[in-house]
Amino acid sequence: MMNEKNTGVRIRVPASTSNLGPAFDAVGLALQLYLTLEVRALPQSPTRIDVTGEDAQLIPTDESNYIWRSMAEMAEESECRLPYFSLRVENEIPISKGLGSSSAALLAAAAAVNFLCARNWDSEKLLEITVAREGHPDNLAPSLFGGLVASIHGNKILCSKSEFPKEWTAVAVTPNLEIPTEMARSILPPDISRKHAIYNIQRAAFLMAQLVQGRREGLREAMSDLLHQPYRSRLIPGLTEVLAMDHCEGLLGIALSGSGSTVIALAESHEAEIGALICELFKSHGLSSRSRLLKADNTGLAVCNNRSDSGPAHDAPRFQRL
User: Fold this and answer.
1) Alpha-carbon distances, residue 229 vs 22, 36, 101, 117 (angstroms)
2) What pLDDT shows up at residue 307?
3) Res. 155: pLDDT tops 90
4) What percent of the chain has pLDDT above 90?
5) Which CATH architecture has domain 169-294?
6) Structural domain boundaries of the chain?
7) Do domains 8-162+297-321 and 169-294 have the same CATH topology?
8) CB count, 10 Å around CB of 180?
9) In whole angstroms, what is the distance from residue 297 CA to residue 299 CA?
């Protein structure tokens, strides 16, 4: 069991955006927007959970809570009996809006079990456990490792991480519209044409080649897509117009974030203006929205042991990679 002198740990997991247009189910980017989980072992019942922050009203505080439920399942599968515990969730990630909220929650749950059950799981084991539940690593991998991550889910999970350019900003605009992943996947056609496959393969390859070198040329075209965005545009009023935005100073490229409803615009300047313009386009279709200016998180999941009760929620020097 865990060391009784170390009964608490603080876990920080970044949000993520996936696909970046053409790299469907293959590429993700970690962002400086966080789910922070403080877990403490308790000497006696009851286990309890407290939630604050973004969409807190949507997050259950009983055994149906996704983190709590996932912890119980992971512990049982690893033949560990969880002690009584308390969870304090501080959430910044919008729920079911394309910024990897479920992936962040799963990783937080796995890291909490790792601590409470003293399993000594490394990052690769955490990825294996969480991908088995989520089914694909495109959000999980960047939230775990940080940065820009290309991944393959075959006989084994393969990931390649690159640091994202620090001078660029991800303008994340989130309409007030929840898009369940199951719904967003159900509207996609079961088959695609060779022409559309070639279109996306070319752009995904070019996109990654440019991003890992921090080169801006051609990103606007490279982030276009024919496999999922045209179909998901039916679910999000105004998305077609937003994706067609062009000739905006500072705009490098724009795409739907995951299955939506958030849109991600990569920018090298005029970030606030780009966010405001996207908000106006959604507003013209009856959707209110919020713009966030985010930098890439190149660290990924991090933990802090024996945190004092003072200090900011995600004071970077306090946290270390798992």
Assistant:
1) 9, 31, 20, 42
2) 46
3) no
4) 84
5) 2-Layer Sandwich (3.30)
6) 8-162+297-321, 169-294
7) no
8) 11
9) 6
Protein fold of 8-162+297-321: Ribosomal Protein S5; domain 2 (3.30.230)
Q: Model confidence at 319, in pLDDT bands (50, 70, 90)?
A: low
Flag whether pLDDT at 81 surpasses 50: yes
Residues 221-262 have pLDDT tens digits of 999 999 999 999 999 999 999 999 988 999 999 999 999 999
Q: What is the pLDDT of residue 247?
A: 81
> d(Cα 276, Cα 183) in Å, to the nearest integer?
28
